[in-house]
Write a structure and sequence with these properties.
Blueprint (H helix, E strand, L loop, with lengths): L5 E6 L5 H17 L5 E5 L7 H11 L3 E6 L6 H12 L6 E4 L7 H13 L10 E7 L5 H15 L5 E6 L7 H11 L3 E6 L6 H9 L5 E2 L7 H14 L10
Helix pairs in contact: 1-8, 4-8, 6-7
């Protein structure tokens, strides 16, 4: 494994300590799935170590190859602007490949269902349950379209209905989608947060779920999420990809 690139997981960061704790738990699960792979964590804001600090340390150790993986579910501003800017400022000796964001992925749909079942639903409840796919929200039209596509895809797996909702920047809000599913006649309504870690916006989703029957947990360190990280790492590590800074 020594000749494999280091995996640098890049998280946004948060003042909420639950965020960093969840990120670290997810990284530990990734390590457990791929023993021998070096996995580091860097944060864009609020938490340490910073992405820049990790990259400086890796360069000082003599590391050459890094796969930088945005811990994001959609390709919005952070994936398109913030993270590439930070990586461009990395030490020149590093060859850095930026991996794709985590979503969309069938594994993430499996993780969403895992969380709903952990919250009390069963596969037998699917046809009578409407689900709110509640994401953080974005001003990026591409990111919003992806969430709508995921909701449509998930509905085709047997749920009564699936509606997207957003905690910020876009509409509808979680509470609006809950009311819409009630009006559709779904026997029960569940809210599935399409977010990776607790924090301000997930808490807003939870408040909006007050009228629902079931509120699932965030995706967190679900094994399916860890597997997606490794899939993105493997794809980015293929030699055919052009490396940043090469």
């Amino acid at each position: 494994m020594r000749d494999r690139p280091v995996l640098l997981v890049i998280a946004h960061g948060s003042r909420d300590p639950r965020h960093a704790a969840t990120v670290h738990a997810l990284v530990e699960r990734v390590r457990s799935l791929r023993p021998g792979l070096r996995v580091e964590t860097g944060f864009l804001d609020f938490n340490v170590p910073s992405v820049h600090g990790v990259l400086e340390s890796l360069a000082a150790e003599g590391v050459r190859d890094v796969v930088a993986l945005p811990l994001l579910l959609t390709r919005a501003f952070h994936a398109k602007a913030d993270i590439p800017a930070v990586l461009r400022d990395a030490p020149a000796r590093l060859r850095i490949r930026q991996a794709e964001v985590l979503g969309p992925s069938p594994l993430l749909l499996s993780a969403l269902e895992r969380r709903l079942y952990e919250a009390g639903l069963t596969p037998a409840d699917k046809s009578s349950t409407g689900v709110v796919l509640a994401s953080a929200g974005s001003s990026d039209p591409e990111a919003i379209a992806v969430i709508a596509d995921i909701a449509r895809e998930w509905w085709h797996t047997g749920w009564c209905a699936v509606r997207p909702a957003f905690a910020s920047a876009s509409l509808p809000r979680t509470e609006d989608a809950v009311r819409e599913l009630r009006a559709l006649g779904c026997e029960r309504v569940a809210v599935a947060p399409y977010v990776l870690a607790p924090g301000f916006l997930p808490d807003r989703i939870a408040r909006g779920a007050a009228g629902a029957d079931v509120l699932a947990d965030v995706l967190g360190a679900a094994p399916e999420v860890a597997r997606v990280l490794l899939e993105r790492y493997d794809a980015a590590g293929r030699p055919a990809l052009t490396a940043l800074g090469a």
